[in-house]
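Two records follow; treat each independently.
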Amino acid sequence: MKHRLLPLSETMHYILLALREPLHGYAMMQKIEKMSNGQVVLAAGTLYGAIENLCKHGWIAPVQGETGRRKIYKITAQGEEILQFEKQRLSHILSLYERED
């Protein structure tokens, strides 16, 4: 698969993985920090820039019927396909560590 955003950055991996459930920006930041065991702490500008990019490519989308000021996002089917593609790519790379060539 060819796409200008591939391979995904670490930030985009975490955002897509976090958005397997609908979340608003601040909740995403908290979930990503927890998922990464405190290793990834996203600044608001980084997060919202990535959200804009992921929305533009159709990998995440705002949840319809949202209420209040906070915009809630969720991964799309296309975003799930990208995650699966990246999972296979990374699994292959990890398997190379196990080889004794």
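The next record belongs to a different protein.
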Amino acid sequence: MTMLKPYQPYLHSLLRAVAGLVLFSYGTQKILGFPASGAMPPAGSLSWIAGVLELTLGFLVLIGLWTRLSAFVLSGLMAFAYFLAHAPQGFYPAQNGGVAAILFCFVFLYLAAAGAGPVALDAKRA
């Protein structure tokens, strides 16, 4: 759709911000207990370490600061999460609960290559 082409850079920034916000919310749930969940992972566990990365790097992606590095690490984290937690439960992502991990992995890989977009702190620093 050529009518959306002028908005592409801003939609890129919106994708980055929304992906960062959603992952950040997973981190707040694991580390800060908000929104309330049934169980918080024990400090130092793999799930807790993932939560710390989701919280800190998710926030950096949300605001668009050090986006390429943060997104690259998060892409690896999501690949690791998929193969460690989801793939052993079955082959198909729709059945093993790994759809979000796969999507996050590739969205963050894209952001690692493409950067933050024009509406970001990285753009202001450049």
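Discussion point: The helical segments are 8-32, 46-63, 67-86, 93-96, 99-114, 121-125. How would you locate this feature using only the token line?
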